[in-house]
Design goal:
By secondary structure, the chain is of the alpha/beta class. The protein has two domains: about 150 residues, no CATH class; about 90 residues, no CATH class. About 45% of the residues lie in helices and about 10% in strands. The protein is built from ten helices and five strands, in the order E-E-H-H-H-E-H-E-E-H-H-H-H-H-H. The chain has a five-stranded mixed sheet with strand order 1-2-3-5-4, covered by helices on one side. Strand 4 and strand 5 form a beta hairpin. Helix 6 crosses helix 9. The longest helix has 18 residues. It starts with a strand and ends in a 6-residue tail after the last helix. The mean pLDDT is about 95. It comes from Candidatus Kerfeldbacteria bacterium CG08_land_8_20_14_0_20_42_7.
Length: about 250
């Protein structure tokens, strides 16, 4: 474990800890202390372990393309830039390895999860060779971590808006072109799907997230939700709404 402490956030890296089984994950979580953000954003260590068991995946012997120092520098740089746009206090960032082939092949070797306000988990595949993509993912999750200070994330509508804002925030802060998940479907197609799912926007059933975002239904292409959310926010921005105000606004409506 390697930990970096800054004035308003900490970065804890487990990227190069020995992980060969669930037992190692069990031992790893013992090193995480409870804070105002729980156990790395979870209510209990048991919940955190269960999540890591799935997300880390089956460990494999793969030589890392990047050093821990390079990754920590990239993460620090990204969060420092993001703070200039939307300050966050007592932020916690945790870096874990992942061996998920989908993350490796489809997500440039990086994925993220924000379980709680001010708390970010990044999962980096050893084959990842893009420091830039690590910065992009951090910025996307940073938007979530900031928004959770002001809003609850409960409905399908919330998911569309949270993800749309996060991608625009990433572009505004650390740059980069439209992500593959945003380009998964065209703007026209996204508008058509939005009309179709409008009756479900207030649904709190997580199955709808799986269908719209994760391709768990043949009716919706993989990552459709990211594109729909992106274009909803793009329309708002073109109509003069300020992106940073969207982050803080008590409730967001199309």
């Amino acid at each position: 474990m390697l930990k970096i402490t800054r004035k308003s956030f900490t970065i804890t890296s487990f990227l190069f800890d020995k992980i060969t089984s669930s037992k190692d994950i069990f031992e790893l979580t013992k090193k995480i202390k409870t804070t105002q953000n729980g156990y790395a954003g979870f209510n209990t260590k048991k919940e955190l372990r269960a999540y890591l068991d799935v997300t880390v995946g089956e460990p494999k012997k793969i030589t890392s393309k990047l050093t821990e120092k390079q990754i920590l520098q990239a993460v620090t740089k990204s969060v420092t830039i993001c703070k200039k746009y939307s300050p966050i206090n007592n932020g916690e960032i945790f870096l874990f390895p992942t061996y998920d082939p989908f993350v490796q092949k489809k997500m440039f070797g990086v994925s993220g999860f924000t379980p709680w306000k001010s708390t970010i988990l990044l999962f980096i595949h050893p084959a990842c060779k893009s420091l830039q993509q690590i910065q992009y993912t951090l910025a996307h999750e940073y938007a979530h971590a900031t928004m959770l200070r002001y809003h609850k994330w409960e409905t399908l509508e919330d998911s569309l808006l949270f993800e749309g804002i996060a991608e625009h925030f990433r572009e505004k802060t650390v740059g980069g072109k439209k992500a593959p998940w945003v380009k998964a479907i065209s703007q026209k197609k996204s508008e058509q799907l939005l009309k179709r799912i409008k009756p479900k926007l207030k649904s709190k059933d997580p199955a709808w997230y799986g269908k719209i975002f994760l391709g768990q239904s043949k009716s919706y292409p993989l990552w459709s939700g990211y594109a729909i959310g992106y274009y909803i926010i793009e329309k708002m921005l073109k109509n003069g709404v300020n992106l940073l105000e969207l982050i803080k606004k008590p409730r967001i409506h199309e």
